[in-house]
UniProtKB/TrEMBL annotation:
Residues 261-288 form the SHOCT domain. Pfam families: DUF4429, SHOCT. InterPro entries: DUF4429, SHOCT. It comes from the Bacteria. Residues 12-106, 137-234 form the DUF4429 domain. This is DUF4429 domain-containing protein.
Length: 291
């Protein structure tokens, strides 16, 4: 494709098999974007691309990642505010035509659907660290460490002492945004691993302020741009250490009229020279296979 779309706070550069998203570092740019810097998103990681009207003379190009394809979005669990969505590009309305063409081309090139069996978008690179209300969290790529703060940690955490969790002992992470009530980062133990399993015990896990496998956020502690990339990096390392089993999703039958309309639209892109002969044949065969 070769096009570049520069919007507010980010620019998207389109390649044949991926989108490179570069985030600005201006004072008005969301801190999460600045922390991410840039991200290369393979087209195989995307489920759909849409272009919708925005506010105050803008349009919004948004890509929807496949479940399981991006550790950052998996860790966020739908808690990010609209303005901090890294897959959302806001553009002036006068670029709507170019944005629409890019959206059409991207849609025609998408090949993945349903949950991904592995992460396709790279996680933030360790080492990473942040300061929580009750301690300091650090991650070196192999293990997570919690060092308790004498001014914020509960007596239950002080009694257990500072904590060390190898990623091989973990099954995942639970991130609750610091912008919501009871924000925290909790490490989830792998079944049969005592190192992290002792933190939760049998039944329901303890409250985060009493759980040695969790750190508690608060005003100014564990901000999104620090704690979310941290959670994503830990989650990605856990998946590499113990890949999650592939999800079995029954194939959904598509409406023949919808398939016919998508093939017609694909043909128009082909005639306009926006899709190659090979891409047209492959995508058409994929659409017909969904009948």
């Amino acid at each position: 494709m070769g096009d570049v779309l520069a919007g507010f706070h980010a620019a998207w550069e389109f390649a044949s098999d991926s989108v490179l998203i570069r985030y600005e570092r201006g004072i008005r740019t969301p801190k999460l974007f600045q922390a991410l810097g840039e991200r290369r998103v393979p087209l195989a990681a995307l489920a759909s691309v849409t272009l919708t009207p925005g506010r105050r003379g803008t349009v919004v190009l948004r890509a929807e990642p496949r479940p399981g394809a991006d550790p950052l979005m998996d860790a966020a669990g739908g808690q990010l505010k609209e303005g901090c969505d890294p897959y959302r590009l806001v553009l002036p309305a006068d670029r709507e035509a170019l944005a629409g063409r890019c959206a059409d081309e991207l849609t025609a090139r998408l090949t993945g659907s349903g949950p991904a069996d592995r992460h396709l978008v790279a996680a933030p690179e360790p080492p990473l660290h942040f300061k929580a209300y009750d301690g300091k969290a650090s991650f070196d790529g192999a293990a997570v460490r919690f060092r308790w703060s004498w001014t914020g940690a509960s007596s239950a955490k002080w009694k257990t002492g500072d904590q060390h969790f190898p990623v091989t002992a973990l099954s995942g992470v639970e991130w609750r945004s610091p912008e919501s009530f009871e924000g925290h980062l909790r490490l989830l133990p792998r079944e049969g691993c005592g190192a992290a399993g002792a933190a939760g015990g049998a039944g329901q896990p303890p409250q985060p302020d009493q759980d040695p496998a969790a750190v508690v956020f608060g005003r100014g502690y564990g901000p999104v741009h620090e704690s979310l990339p941290f959670a994503a990096a830990v989650l990605a390392a856990v998946r590499v250490a113990a890949p999650a089993p592939a999800l079995s999703v029954p194939a959904a039958r598509r409406d023949p009229a919808d398939i016919a309309e998508r093939i017609r639209h694909l043909g128009e892109l082909h005639q306009a020279g926006l899709v190659t002969d090979e891409e047209f044949s492959v995508k058409k065969a994929q659409l017909l296979a969904e009948l």
